[in-house]
Amino acid sequence: METNDRDSRHKARMVRKKAVIDEKIEQANQEKGLLLILTGNGKGKSSSAFGMVARSLGHGMRVGVAQFIKGRSDTGEEAFFRQHPAVTWHVLGEGFTWNTQDRQRDTETAMRGWQIVAGMLQDPAIQLVVLDELTYTFKYGYLDEQMVLDAIAKRPPMQHVVITGRGASEALRNAADTVSELMDVKHAWRAGIKAQAGIDL
Amino acid sequence: METNDRDSRHKARMVRKKAVIDEKIEQANQEKGLLLILTGNGKGKSSSAFGMVARSLGHGMRVGVAQFIKGRSDTGEEAFFRQHPAVTWHVLGEGFTWNTQDRQRDTETAMRGWQIVAGMLQDPAIQLVVLDELTYTFKYGYLDEQMVLDAIAKRPPMQHVVITGRGASEALRNAADTVSELMDVKHAWRAGIKAQAGIDL
């Protein structure tokens, strides 16, 4: 009896939910390339971008990836995706900026990297461009943010761009179609657990 | 002159940052399988889990994926990863719960799926287990959360588990090593933009 009640309440609730969602899907009818920002201090920003790379490849799309700043300690995704014929992968940073400690050299590296990215942002054959850890180049003044925003605004209309990194600016958030902020609620590293291959600790 | 000042402040700051990070790496020396939760209303939770799948495959690891509840509208990641010899992929839901509107049937489906997951959680050859959208099975009472937590606690010691879905409970957060909460700051869908292949709108 109680189960039947719960079942019929569940059904009524799901009927209402379906109506709301169907209406939203109906209203969402604009197709265009999206700018998506993954920011915040939580873990999983780059992983999320690489999950979208996998998804796009599953749809037969071409993908360009540029990794800025961070000489990532875990390069499993690079090893995995680089071999795929539809992926172009560029590592543009030279290790952690707190390893190089040389702002002039880092700026030159970032500007060389930017030339490559600017090319991808003009190529309609590349349907998804991932700019991993791009925000740090603005924070440390390696790249001019307005220059980057201008290039993104002028990209091919159906090209998607995903930008990751902490501390996305107001200007970047305003330009974006979708912004997800990852909050660091609990972090294994603080409990003394070592970074391990594969997992985004 | 001003540039030189900025450069030397940058260098000093990066030297301090390197010291802090090196010390943290030094202290983090425990190796074990991690339980990672990706929750919150923002976009990118499942994408983040699938990025970790790519990373793990890049390290030659074996991966098991179970997708609960959601008959995803975008199945690009399934198309992409299913063909990989080191991936076992199970779709355990039968479409959105607001499409089926039948709690009894959904509960039976979830319990059948759970048998498969329980097997993966006892197999040390599977180094990463992704339980995508698992939290909804607790919310709607399809699976008993304590039963799932017990199985996770008894898994092989080096196996990583990633759980995604909105509304992760306190019990799940307490059991986890790392919890990232994705906040929905801005969402293209609300601006009338249609869901599009590849991108996690």
Task: Tell me what you see in this structure.
The structure is a homodimer of 201-residue chains. Chain A has 201 residues and is an alpha/beta fold. Chain A has 2 domains: 1-29; 31-184, P-loop containing nucleotide triphosphate hydrolases (Rossmann fold, 3-Layer(aba) Sandwich), CATH 3.40.50. Chain A contains 8 helices and 6 strands. Chain A has helices spanning 2-27, 45-58, 76-82, 97-100, 103-120, 135-139, 145-153, 170-175, and strands at 35-39, 63-67, 87-91, 128-132, 160-164, 178-186. In chain A, strands 3-2-4-5-1-6 form a 6-stranded parallel β-sheet, with helices on both faces. In chain A, strand 2 (63-67), helix 3 and strand 3 (87-91) form a beta-alpha-beta unit. Chain A starts with a helix and ends in a 15-residue tail after the last strand. Chains A and B meet through helix 1, helix 2, helix 3, helix 4 and strand 6 of A and helix 1, helix 2, helix 3, helix 4 and strand 6 of B.
What's the layout of helices and strands?
Two copies of one chain form a homodimer.
Chain A: H1 2-27, E1 35-39, H2 45-58, E2 63-67, H3 76-82, E3 87-91, H4 97-100, H5 103-120, E4 128-132, H6 135-139, H7 145-153, E5 160-164, H8 170-175, E6 178-186
Parallel strand pairs in A: 1-5, 1-6, 2-3, 2-4, 4-5
